[in-house]
Amino acid sequence: MKAYKKKLAFLLALAALFAAMCTMTACSPDEEVSSSAPEMVQETEEVHIRGTIPPTKPALVVEGANAKAGDQKVEVIINVVNNPGILGMDFDLYYDDSVMTLVDAQSVLALEGCEYTTPAYYKNPTTFLWDFQDVNWVEDGAVLKLYFDIADDAPAGKYEIKIMYSYGNIMDADLQPVDFGVKNGNISIS
């Protein structure tokens, strides 16, 4: 059984690598497809924590944060809600690297048997990967803490932090794809 789990981890890593190499990244079937980093969010846009995701749908939710030009280590948390059970997961994170730099990321899952693959370096996009091996993770809550440095000359505005994944990159205990919604967040710079 452990060899089977190792093969799954290898296949998930291979899928993440393939997704990163593609010029166009697909997202879950309910989400809009984009091939570039997100643009600045309009100042008048209201950001709702649940957006248009049905209230019972599994989802990855990026919390927003407030910052000022020159701020360091601005924390943004990514949560899982309505978790039906996950055995493996990977996704890409996009952000506006002209105004912020991802300087650190910490998995906040402290489950025995959960293997988090720390990215070799932070770039835009960055791929995050978890293999839960013998654990069927079913809890809701924080999964990742991100830390951004804001450029000294960053103009005021809302800058999107966007998650994208290929359908099949989030798997349940039966090795079946789980369709997760995504609610992107932003950093509001004043």
Write structural notes for this entry:
- The chain is mainly beta and 190 residues long.
- It is built from 1 helix and 13 strands, in the order αβββββββββββββ.
- The strands form 2 sheets. Strands 1, 3, 5, 7, 8, 10, 11 and 13 form an 8-stranded mixed sheet that branches. It has a 5-stranded mixed sheet with strand order 6-9-4-2-12, with no helix packed on it.
- Mean pLDDT is 78; it is low at 10-50.
Classification by helices and strands: mainly beta
For the biggest sheet, the summary is: 8 strands, mixed
- Rounded mean pLDDT is 78
Unreliable stretches (pLDDT < 50, length at least 5) are 10-50
The percent range for strand residues is: 35-45%
Helix and strand element order: HEEEEEEEEEEEEE
- Molecular shape: globular
Whole-number radius of gyration?
16 Å
Kindly, what is the distance between the CA atoms of the first and last residues, rounded to a whole number of angstroms? 52 Å
**How many beta-strand segments?**
13
Classify the helix fraction into a percent range: 10-25%
What is the tally of helical segments? 1
Key attributes of the depicted protein:
190 residues, mainly beta, eight-stranded mixed β-sheet, five-stranded mixed β-sheet, 1 helix, 13 strands, globular
Task: Furnish the topology, listing elements before pairings.
Elements: H1 2-21, E1 40-41, E2 59-62, E3 65-67, E4 74-81, E5 88-95, E6 100-107, E7 115-117, E8 126-131, E9 141-150, E10 157-164, E11 170-171, E12 181-183, E13 185-189
Parallel strand pairs: 2-12, 3-13
Antiparallel strand pairs: 1-10, 2-4, 4-9, 5-8, 5-10, 5-11, 6-9, 7-8, 10-13
